[in-house]
Structure formats: structure tokens, C-alpha cells
Amino acid sequence: xxxxxxxxxxxxxxxxxxxxxxxxxxxxxxxxxxxxxxxxxxxxxxxxxxxxxxxxxxxxxxxxxxxxxxxxxxxxxxxxxxxxxxxxxxxxxxxxxxxxxxxxxxxxxxxxxxxxxxxxxxxxxxxxxxxxxxxxxxxxxxxxxxxxxxxxxxxxxxxxxxxxxxxxxxxxxxxxxxxxxxxxxxxxxxxxxxxxxxxxxxxxxxxxxxxxxxxxxxxxxxxxxxxxxxxxxxxxxxxxxxxxxxxxxxxxxxxx
Length: 256
Description:
Strand content: 25-35%
Radius of gyration: 17 Å
Strand order of the largest sheet: 6-5-4-3-2-1-14
Shape: globular
CATH class: Alpha Beta
Distance between the termini: 5 Å
Largest sheet: 7 strands, mixed
Order of helices and strands: EEEHEHHEHEEEEEHEHHHEHEE
CATH topology: Metallo-beta-lactamase, Chain A
């Protein structure tokens, strides 16, 4: 299984996952034209995308999806809540495949399963994709990491997990208090410390790679994330390489 991050952060999220003859896009939080540009810059033909999997309806994850799917005739995979929130439910002109959290599915050479997540969206999910002995988990935009979520992470060979904010930077930063409360609340975003703890609790011999995603440009820095992640990996006892996905440049191709 091969992964290419096109963009990661509050300015837009999109990630390519492929195995064998099947290539999908996970989230489409950029304009369709920008997604096409970033795909073509990586020698990926837009028409090769078999489907878009949406985690939830917020613009930084879904804004380009309706236009892209209409232009390239590929279906959207989403929960009913997400589909309804972006006006897809009942739309005869937009192919929509229902995602049910906890239920396994398959699209070509990719197996998948969704996991319901706590976020201030209609029906948000994280995804696990499987091919051969690889299991990739993509999880962002969740306010807390409960025991069941840690279990969902445990078998991942590659973990792409939100490390949204540094708690001190968020507290002392320029955001309004209502926004600070939303981000740090149980239906907001995971802090560096919360994500590192989930990584530590789910660590095991199958883990090959960790990718930190969805960093806040206002309330976080790559340097802080590297330090927090490094300490968590050292504590886990498993020597696992990690990378940080960027908003503008994404992250080059890697194997899951």
C-alpha cells in the first residue's frame, strides 16, 4: 500500500491511498482544480481516482469533493450524516456510497473500515485501509482518544494521526476564548500530548511508521511535534520512524 499526502492542516486536507489497481482519495479539502494540480504534479492522473472517502463535512476536508466527483465520475464514500451535511443525500447526480462505522468493506484492492470519532460534525469517522500485511489508519479532527479508539489504532502498520496544537500555545495564543474552548474540548482536536499518549498506548511490533497530521499553523510548530513524538516513541520501547505532513507540500510517497 502506497500513500501520498497532498495537503494536511486547517487550510485543507487530501491524501492518496493506493494498492494494486485501486487508488482513492481520502478527503478533498481543497478546490477540485487544486487537487488536480497537486495530483498531476505527482504524476497521478485525476481520472485514476476510484473514489473519495470523506471523514466529515467541514470545508477543510470536503470542499472540493462534489466538483471533483462530478468531473471525474467517481463515487463519494461517506456516512449518511456527512452526506446530508454537504447536500449529497438523495442527489441522483452525485454517486454516494454509504459508510457505516464498524462495518468492513472493500473497493478493488483496498479493504476498509470506518470508526466513529468525537468531533463537532454530523457523523465523523476515521478510516483504516488494509492491503496485504499493511494497515493504514487515518485519524484527525477528534477531541479525545478513548480506549476504543486506541484499540482501533493498535494493529496499524502506519498511523497518520492528528497532532493539532500545543496546549500552551493555544492557551496563550490569539484565538478567542470560545474558539479555544472548542478546539481543546472533547469534540474539538487532539493536542500533541493527547496524540502522543494514544500513540504510546497503541504501540506494538507491527508499527512501521507514524505521520503527524493536521498541525495548526497558529498553535503548533513542527519542532514541538518532533520533540513530543520523539519522547513518546522512546517511552514506547519501539524504534519507529516518524514524519510530519505539511499544509503546502504535503508529504512525498511512502509505503504503509
